[in-house]
Write a structure and sequence with these properties.
Blueprint (H helix, E strand, L loop, with lengths): L5 E7 L3 H12 L8 E7 L15 E5 L7 H11 L4 E5 L3 E3 L3 H10 L4 E9 L6 H9 L7 E2 L3 H9 L18 E5 H7 L12 H11 L4 E12 L3 H4 L2 H18 L3 H4 L10 E5 L6 H12 L4 E5 L13 E3 L4 H4 L4 E5 L4 E3 L3 H5 L4 E3 L3 E5 H6 L5 E4 L4 E3 L6 H4 L20 E2 L8
Parallel strand pairs: 1-2, 1-4, 2-3, 6-9, 10-11, 10-13, 11-12, 15-17
Antiparallel strand pairs: 4-8, 5-9, 6-7, 6-8, 13-16, 14-18, 15-16, 17-19
Length: 427
């Protein structure tokens, strides 16, 4: 087997002691050091870090101090890296000697994104020599702190992410994150709008998941964080403020009720609808858009956009959806003509996707599209339809002639739906 070149990217800011431990730990890796390079991405420290002489190539890259920009620092390091595997390690997270080789084994076995095991200890008094003695068994171990129980339980529940679903991104930690170069480049790297602690790893992982990446948590890839977990080192008020800042930024970029709740309109919708409106009557397009957007976190892109002369909804656009929007939406809908969705919302259908209603409307999962997932099924529910409706009379329609009597889509044992059999999407 050809041993891949691994690029270790270490974002750093004003932490010479921690960085010295990480660089010393990388000298002890059992992965061949001639197939290892290190890029220290400094986030505006007052003085440039000095990595010293090392038995592997190491470079220091710097960016201006414009706040907490760990995402940008990681992108800076990755852009200069030459490895097939990108291994991101925080400057206060010290890898055990088998860390890199465990990551490589997982990648060779088919993983696109690898999450190591982050453990916690008091490394404040540990020296590089003390670290070597600890890792070789010739010296004492530092005081250990508890691991986060919620992470441990999540990895057990998902068979180390092999059986994870759309919430897999919540179990990805950038301090012990590795990806293939191809995945990193395909997704565009970390979102640099994150300028405070936390969240950029979840947002990046969310896009990787939608791109079809295979996730794996590798328990043998152990790295030690200097200090307890966030919950154990932050006062309640400060923790709440930090979580709110992180949560609001996540809501901008990661669709779903878990991140953004309901009601508000976002630039990156959960469902992207592309509608071919060429030659269609404006009233038909308006009726179609109204039925699709009702109660859904969705955005509609019209090929021609003649209806935009009367539509003043920020969720409706002309042309093709931007790549950044497509890369974050969990669901896709493509329509070759206007239809009216009756008896269900796009949110209802997304919950049972992939699915088709009638001959024209189908809701597909973005991850399935990238992985060559299953064909959509035909959903057969009394009262649910999505059919062309030429010649819509909007005055009658909005005059409440009939819409109050339309049945609502119900997902319960009393009103089951029947769908043609569809295979389970590849994990």
């Amino acid at each position: 087997m050809i041993v891949p070149l691994v690029s270790v990217v270490v974002p750093h800011y004003e932490g010479p002691h921690d960085l010295a431990l990480v660089l010393a730990a990388l000298e002890l890796q059992d992965h061949p050091l001639d197939r290892l390079e290190v890029l220290v991405a400094d986030d505006g420290s007052r003085q440039a870090p000095d990595p010293g002489p090392r038995p592997y190539p190491v470079r220091v890259l710097r960016q201006a101090d414009e706040g907490f920009r760990a995402a940008a620092a990681r992108n800076l390091g990755a852009a200069a890296a030459g490895g097939e595997v990108l291994c991101f390690l925080d400057a206060d997270t010290v890898p055990e000697p088998g860390y890199v080789s465990a990551v490589v084994r997982a990648v060779v076995a088919g993983a696109d994104l690898v999450v190591g095991r982050r453990r916690h200890a008091d490394l404040s008094a540990t020296t590089p020599d003390g670290l070597r003695r600890w890792f070789t068994g010739d010296g004492p171990a530092p005081r250990e702190f508890d691991e986060p129980a919620w992470l441990r339980e999540a990895y057990e529940r998902t068979a180390d992410l092999a059986d994870a679903g759309d919430d897999a991104y919540r179990f990805v930690i950038s301090a012990v994150l590795s990806t293939t170069r191809r995945l990193f480049e395909d997704t565009g790297g970390f979102e640099e709008a994150f300028s405070a602690y936390g969240g950029e790893d979840w947002e990046f992982a969310h896009r990787c998941w939608l791109r079809g990446a295979r996730f794996r948590h590798v328990r043998d890839a152990v790295a030690w964080h200097d200090g307890p977990d966030f919950a154990g080192r932050t006062e309640d008020a400060q923790a709440r403020l930090s979580r709110n800042v992180e949560g609001l930024t996540l809501a901008r970029f990661v669709p779903g009720r878990a991140t953004r709740g309901d009601q508000l309109v976002w630039a990156h919708p959960d469902v992207v609808v592309r509608l071919r409106d060429t030659g269609a009557a404006v009233a038909d397009v308006v009726a179609c858009v109204r039925s699709l957007l009702a109660g859904a976190d969705a955005g509609v892109w019209l090929r021609d956009g003649a209806a935009l002369a009367v539509l003043e909804d920020p969720r409706v656009h002309r042309g093709e959806p931007p790549a950044a929007v497509l890369g974050r939406a969990r669901y896709r809908v493509d329509l070759d003509r206007p239809v009216e969705l009756v008896g269900a919302t796009l949110t209802d259908l997304a919950e049972v996707a992939p699915v088709r209603v009638g001959e024209h409307l189908s809701v597909r999962r973005t991850r399935d599209l990238h992985r060559g997932g299953p064909d959509v099924a035909v959903l057969q529910v009394p009262g649910v339809s999505a059919e062309p409706a030429p010649g819509v009379d909007l005055q009658r329609r909005w005059g409440h002639e009939d819409h109050q009597r339309r049945p609502r889509f119900q997902r319960s044992l009393r009103t089951p739906f029947v769908a043609t059999e569809r295979p389970t999407a590849a994990p």
